[in-house]
Amino acid sequence: MDDPVSKKIERAVRFRVGAVRFFNARPLIYGLERDERVELRREVPARLAAALTGGRVDAALLPSIDYQKAEAQWQILPVPAIGSCGGVVTVRVFSQVPPEQVEQLYCDTDSHTSVVLAQILWRGVYGRELAVVPLAGRAEECASVLLIGDKVLPQLTGAWGYQLDLGQVWTQWTGLPFLYAFWVVPQEGNYDLLVRILEQAHESGMRNLDALIEQYGPEHGFSREAGRSYFAENIRFGFGQQEQAGLRRFYELAYEMKLTQRKRELRFYPERGADLSAGCGAGG
């Protein structure tokens, strides 16, 4: 039997939650706009770490490299995350020259993780150092450009000589999934209720995936068919042992290549690892 006092306390709690604006996050935050226990704030990925550090949000769907670079001590919530195991579609390099000839890469400043991923892949796979330049103008004016999220779709049919899906290149090279973002909270505090809220949001998003695609797909440039394919074949929400292995490998390589100053271990809330079975052989 439900405890009415506990329910009243739950309704009084209000978490300020920061999430990325992209289509791939929609199944993780489905219904949170209407949840009276949550104040949802949607931002570009690069701003979420500052929002969490500055206390403007209580939890953030944080780009994975920002967990490693942050001075603050944060915890990872053991709930679904955003990843891929193979092609991801929406993290992509467009180029007029072959990848092994790319020397300068213009990069979408909305992303931190994808920029580091590109630098790792070019050094590890193509044997080249990349000069990374913030993208200030139009993508079409660049010889090589990295785009993420909704900005990728208009370029898929563009007049580019080469396109590289960075999720696919990573998995082909390492044999591991890649995690782009996961939920992070400060070191202190009780987040049991927030874990339940986020788990329920994801369950609701996957249960209502067709409705979600119908409602939000056009806003992000996805047709019904493209949205279904994206969530069935590209985006994965697991945070199991393989995903954690992929994340650790990403951190190790970033540190070895001096792209980060530290190699921080994964610290989960509470003091245990996430137990979300997934891996490259599993779906959703």
Q: What can you see in these coordinates?
A:
The chain has 284 residues and is an alpha/beta fold. It folds into two domains: 4-83 and 179-256, Periplasmic binding protein-like II (D-Maltodextrin-Binding Protein, domain 2, 3-Layer(aba) Sandwich), CATH 3.40.190.10; 91-174, Periplasmic binding protein-like II (D-Maltodextrin-Binding Protein, domain 2), CATH 3.40.190.10. It is built from nine helices and eleven strands. The strands form two sheets. Strands 1, 2, 3, 4, 5 and 11 form a six-stranded mixed sheet that branches. It has a five-stranded mixed sheet with strand order 8-7-9-6-10. It is globular and about 55 Å long. The protein starts with a helix and ends in a 28-residue tail after the last helix.
Q: Give the ordered list of helices and strands.
A: HEEHEHEEEEHEEEHEHHHH
Average residue-wise pLDDT: 91
The global form is: globular
Query: How many runs of DSSP E, i.e. beta strands?
Result: 11
Just name the CATH architecture of the largest domain: 3-Layer(aba) Sandwich
> CATH-wise, what's the superfamily of the largest domain?
Periplasmic binding protein-like II
Indicate the proportion of strand residues. 15-25%
C-alpha end-to-end distance: 32 Å
Enter the CATH topology name of the largest domain: D-Maltodextrin-Binding Protein, domain 2
Total number of helices: 9
- So what's the CATH class of the largest domain? Alpha Beta
Rg computed from alpha carbons, rounded to a whole number of angstroms:
19 Å
Oligomer: single chain
Number of domains: 2
Helical fraction equals 25-40%
- The parts where pLDDT drops under 50 for at least 5 residues are 4-9
Largest beta-sheet details: 6 strands, mixed
